[in-house]
Amino acid sequence: MRVEDIIMDCLTFPIATGQEETRRDGIETIAAIRQNSGMRK
Questions:
Q1: What is the pTM of this model?
Q2: What total number of domains does the chain contain?
């Protein structure tokens, strides 16, 4: 595998851990992206 084939996705951890203590991280991450990009629901 080449280094350029590796993709680091910063949203993977907060959205996909399945741990109880991090279960809202995905929701909060998406809300922050919406707020910072000017997007609304």
A1: 0.48
A2: 1
